[in-house]
Write a structure and sequence with these properties.
- The structure is a single chain.
- The longest helix is centred in the N-terminal third of the chain and has 20 residues.
- The protein has 2 domains: 276 residues, Aldehyde Dehydrogenase, Chain A, domain 1 (3-Layer(aba) Sandwich), CATH 3.40.605.10; 191 residues, Aldehyde Dehydrogenase, Chain A, domain 2 (3-Layer(aba) Sandwich).
- Helix 6 links the parallel strand 10 and strand 11.
- Helix 3 packs antiparallel against helix 6.
- The strands form 7 sheets. The protein has a 7-stranded mixed beta sheet with strand order 16-17-18-15-14-20-21, sandwiched between helices.
- 38% of the residues lie in helices and 24% in strands.
- The termini are far apart.
- With 488 residues, it is an alpha/beta fold.
- The structure holds nicotinamide-adenine-dinucleotide (NAD).
- Nicotinamide-adenine-dinucleotide (NAD) binds next to helix 7, strand 12 and helix 8.
- Nicotinamide-adenine-dinucleotide binds next to helix 7, strand 12 and helix 8.
Length: 488
């Protein structure tokens, strides 16, 4: 038993928030459920405006000195974070898997990649740089400096809670900002366990606070705080609207990574076995709850029948099971009942609009408890149907026949979302056209959708503003200042 998380009964832990270098209690809590068993497994703090203000004040008090440290010294703390993650990798993966129904293999990947992520950004300490610019005046030097913005607030979703938390912490701390992370109320455990693990690595108090609670409460309070310099949200378009509204009050910079409705285009020359394998794995990874999952499929009519003949058995073979106890499961339960109902109601409306369910189409009957949905394939869908337009975030693949590659591109772009896309083809002209004509932040050719840490994960249209990862993701946390120095 620790002072940050006390056991109640045998399993239920009561967590505390990590603010200004120590753990503190709240009077109200939010129940955290295991989505596979519906059991309460933890009580997480329901953070308040006071908690938000305390975290921001502590960040403000600590940031100036932190920002003046050489970046290599700040990088040492990121390396320590990577180290404690590696030392506790199995425990963290088990915690993650239990609170969010992520199959253990994928949960372990998330934990391990997060350690790599901290090391990756630590390695940038010596490489991010300003510029020296030629001046128009004799004896003058012009220098462009990259300075921290000040206080960075990171607001995180439940689907990759550990990795996305690191996506906010690593670049903001390396560049000299103080950081307040608001983790999701659905999946706070693994992030608050991380707070415990880094409590004694020597980070100055206030440089990093990890808080939790509801978005409209502590999330809103953080977004409205005038001392905050940047708010980086990963979440739904709805939350993006709210954060932008709050940020507008103080002209606070926002970086938004929002939802997606990723199209997958299967061309008539595609390797169909490869396309089926990649699309199925892209659709069922974390039970369909990934922002860049294939959400809609367009298949050229010449190969539509053959594609469907291969797709259906592949989707049928997907094994659904308890994330913690079934080590052969490909996917598990949806995060909560609301998400399960949302997926189910979207499928029902797709059928009302004329769609034909070829596989699944209902909550799983295999389990007595838990929020499981069957892997689902829907045909006879039309471009204007809700299932082709709105993010489903579940294991549901609507598939549409198209008459040409031109039509596939038109339909793919006909979306409010513009996060990721994929195309299956061996035709170089199709690939070259997709480079310029598919209007999405990422396009994957002949592979499933999953980004790399050295890339730039960013969405077009309502999928967001700004982005994360790589050197461009680091720039989000910097502001540019020009010095004009006149020699006497
Ligand atoms: P969500 O929008 O419900 O919540 C995300 C976070 O925002 C949570 O911490 C929540 O508490 C907070 N929030 C909600 N309302 C807020 C408000 N008014 N002010 C401040 N904070 C607020 O999203 P979710 O259900 O946790 O995650 C799923 C969504 O996230 C999907 O749409 C998915 O596509 C998207 N997502 C996008 C990416 C990406 O990289 N683009 C990555 C993961 C998830």
């Amino acid at each position: 038993m620790t002072d940050f998380a006390t056991s109640v009964g045998t399993e239920v832990k009561t967590y505390q928030q990590f603010i200004a270098g120590s753990f503190s209690s709240t009077t109200e809590h939010i129940e955290v459920l295991n989505p596979c068993t519906e059991e309460i497994i933890a009580l997480a703090p329901r953070g308040t405006k006071d908690d938000a203000d305390r975290a921001v004040s502590a960040a403000k008090a600590a940031q100036t000195d932190w920002g003046l440290l050489p970046a290599v010294e700040r990088a040492e703390y990121l390396k320590k974070m990577a180290q404690v993650i590696r030392e506790n990798r199995v425990f963290l993966a088990e915690t993650l898997s239990t609170e969010q129904a992520k199959v253990m293999g994928l949960a372990q990947v998330e934990i391990d990649v997060t350690a790599v992520y901290f090391d990756y950004y630590a390695g940038m300490a010596r490489t991010y740089e300003g510029e020296v610019i030629n001046s128009d005046r004799p004896g003058e030097q012009m220098m462009l400096h990259k300075l921290p913005i000040g206080i960075a607030v990171g607001i995180c979703p439940w689907n990759f809670p550990f990795f996305v938390m690191a996506r906010k912490i690593a670049p903001s701390l390396l560049t000299g900002n103080a950081c307040v992370v608001k983790v999701s109320e659905e999946t706070p455990m693994v992030c608050l366990e991380f707070a415990r693990l880094i409590e004694n690595i020597g980070l100055p108090a206030g440089i990093l606070s990890i808080v939790t609670g509801y978005g409209h409460e502590i999330g809103q309070a953080l977004s409205e705080n005038p001392d905050v310099g940047i708010i980086s949200l990963t979440g739904s378009v709805g939350a993006g609207h709210k954060v932008m509204e709050a940020a507008a009050k103080n002209i606070t910079k926002v970086s938004l990574e929002l939802g997606g409705k990723a199209p997958a285009i299967v061309c008539k020359d595609a390797d169909l076995d490869l396309a089926v394998k990649a699309i199925v794995s892209s659709r069922i990874i974390y039970s369909g709850q990934v922002c860049n999952c294939a959400e809609r499929v367009y298949v050229e009519e010449e190969v539509y029948d053959e594609f469907m003949t291969k797709l259906l058995p592949a989707m049928k073979a997907v094994r659904v099971g308890d994330a913690r106890t079934d080590d052969k499961a490909d996917m598990s339960a949806q995060i909560n009942k609301t998400q399960l109902m949302k997926v189910d109601s979207m499928v029902k409306r797709a059928v009302e609009q004329g769609g034909e369910v070829l596989l699944g189409g209902r909550a799983s009957q295999k389990f007595n408890k838990g929020y499981y949905y069957e892997p689902t394939v829907i045909a006879n869908v039309e471009q204007h149907h809700e299932i082709m337009q709105d993010e489903t975030f579940g294991p549901v693949l609507p598939v549409m026949k198209v008459s040409s590659f031109d039509q596939a591109i038109d339909y793919a772009n006909d979306s409010d979302y513009g996060l990721t896309s994929s195309i299956y083809t061996n035709n170089i002209n199709n690939i070259l056209r997709a480079t310029k004509e598919l209007l999405f932040g990422e396009t994957y050719v002949n592979r499933e959708n999953f980004e790399a840490i050295q890339g730039f994960h960013a969405g077009f249209r309502k999928s967001g503003i700004g982005g994360a990862d790589g050197k461009h993701g680091l720039e989000e946390y910097l502001q540019t200042k020009v010095m004009y120095i006149q020699q006497n």
